[in-house]
């Protein structure tokens, strides 16, 4: 089980991943992703939270999607970007894209 001190760290990954991936996909800022693609980003956040919770063997308390979307509104002007995959990351990226589930199916 998690404590209130430990769970915020796993929440950082979904907001960065979800908003950066979808922002790059839609060529949008964090605020534009939240406003114009809210259902898509919320679905991805739920997927990332579920995968992280399963891997870490923790139970989310609920409300994570709402908290992350509210945070996104507070940093609405932030740009989004995804680093290009370099040669050293190509094998890993190729392997991950072959998975039928998970967030990379969006890429």
From TrEMBL:
* Lineage, opening ranks: Eukaryota, Viridiplantae, Chlorophyta, core chlorophytes, Chlorophyceae
Q: Tell me where the signal peptide lies.
A: 1-18
Q: What is this protein called?
A: Uncharacterized protein
Key words, A-Z:
Signal
